[in-house]
Amino acid sequence: MVQVCVNGTRGAGDGAVVPLSPGSMAASAAEAVAAGASDIHVHPKSPCGHDTLSPRALTPTLEAIRARVGVPVGVTTGAWAEPDPAARVERVRSWTVLPDHASVNWHEPGAEEVAAALLDRGIGVEAGIWSGTDGAERFAASPLGPQVLRVLAEVLDTSADTAEESAHALLSDLGTAHGRPILLHGMEGGTWPVLRLAGRLGLATRIGLEDTLLLPDGERAISNGQLVAEGLVQHQHQHQYGRERRTS
């Protein structure tokens, strides 16, 4: 599986290529799905362009995207969008149009409560485990671990030279991850090395303007669709290479 991460916390300062309105997110998501993405991760935005968990932003974003594509759509529950853990839970309970899944960063205060609220509403949970945090340790001890949809192994090392090593360390920290599927991805300079590693290991991955604005050759990407198309080529090539190595 290759998920497209449409925009992330990026804003207008990152250029017009980053979709911020429901309509532009939907158009970008549709282009990414046409390029081969099979799942969508999006950050709904307030009128001033900040991440928000408000149903007033989430509802039109989900409706616009679903009018264009038929694949699962997930959103963030990052603490930066709502710092107070109790308020974050209340936001989840206030949603009238529900995403298919939502990411929960396990190192953040209130992660267990947010995940429980999502599960109570029938929303899949992507357990975000960030490198360099205690997320893996906390997730290993979580009674909710076996119930999550998948684990997002998120490598924060932005160096192209060391991101792969950091990814191996994160996967080691995750261990069996409660037996849940793992989606491995990097960010900024580490995006492409980690994506290729995911291919070799036979793991799902993601790509999009949240993670990087650049193609592997350093050229600036013009769309999420372009990133997905290139990501699929590299992921599939590395997957074949890894499979050949394992059977040789």
The largest sheet has its strands arranged as 7-6-5-4-3-2-1-8
Order of helices and strands: EHEHEHEHEHEHEHEH
**What overall form do the CA principal axes indicate?**
globular
CATH top level class name: Alpha Beta
**Intertermini distance:** 25 Å
Please characterize this protein's 3D structure.
The protein has 248 residues and is α/β, with parallel strands linked by helices. The protein has one domain (2-247): TIM Barrel (Alpha-Beta Barrel), CATH 3.20.20. Helix content is 40%, strand content 15%. It is built from eight helices and eight strands; from the N terminus they run E-H-E-H-E-H-E-H-E-H-E-H-E-H-E-H. An eight-stranded parallel beta sheet has the order 7-6-5-4-3-2-1-8. Helix 1 links the parallel strand 1 and strand 2. Helix 1 (22-34) runs parallel beside helix 2, helix 3 (85-94) runs parallel beside helix 4 and helix 7 packs across helix 8. The radius of gyration is 17 Å and the shape is globular.
